[in-house]
Amino acid sequence: MNNVIKILSNNKDYRMVVIDTKKIIERELAEFKGSPLVRNVMKRFITNCVLLSGIHDFKQKISVSLRLSANMSFYCVIADRSIYSEYNEAGCDNEADLFDCQSILAVTTGDWQTGIYTGTVKAQMDDMDMIFSHYMMQSEQIYGRFMTGKKSIHRGCVYQILPFADETNIQKEDQKLSYLLEELECADWLDVPKIYDPVGTVVFETKIE
Fold it and tell me: Are 203 and 8 in contact (CB under 8 A)?
């Protein structure tokens, strides 16, 4: 079953990607031996990495590295709609303590044939969605907002503003998408296209493993 849905807004102001990474996370963390705290951070990291690759249409290889305090790091590679991840854990009891002024998110896209680009941003906010949103704005000069579920971390969406979008309308749409995220968290995956009917039309579906 497909786990990635691409949507174009009804007013053509933005495009978005909606995903479910439950099976991916279960596989990637099958032998995880770290703390529950790090496990949750890793889940949200993987979900955001898939969203980032999805908004780029999975056309290029993407390698994402997140270096945090206390020598903790996360790494994820997505290529040809397949994902690989790993982590390095150090002791920490509070998620906020993982992020400081030295924390860095680095994203490398492309390969030796297509060309390689690496963008880096500080990752001192203890909010994975905000870190990836910050990367899109600072490194790629494109506004994209990442949103993952509060309870269902494996579900999430990202939307990217298109040229000539109505900024006033975007503010209203942002509120709608925040509300729809709550529905996305608990909905049957097959019903997801219906959830987003009020804001856009499904233009593409695929599967990432």
Answer: yes
Q: Which long-range contacts (CB under 8 A, 24 or more apart) does 186-194 make?
A: 186/152, 189/1, 189/3, 189/20, 192/5, 192/18, 193/5
DSSP designation for 57: T
Q: What is the CATH number of the domain that holds 156?
A: 3.55.30.10
Number of structural domains in the chain: 1
Beta bridge partners of 73: 67, 88
The beta strand positions in 72-193, using DSSP E, are: 73-79, 82-88, 104-111, 115-122, 144-148, 155-161
Rounded CA separation 165/6 (Å) = 18
Tokens of 31: 């032998």
> And the tokens for 131?
């870190």
Which domain covers residue 136, as residue numbers? 4-206
Please write the tens of the pLDDT for every residue from 87-118: 987 666 677 778 888 899 999 998 777 788 89
Beta bridge partners of 206: 4
**What is the distance between the alpha carbons of residues 51 and 18, in angstroms, rounded to a whole number?**
8
pTM: 0.94
CA distance 12 to 192: 20
Residue 140: per-residue pLDDT: 79
The residue behind tokens 């978005």 is 16
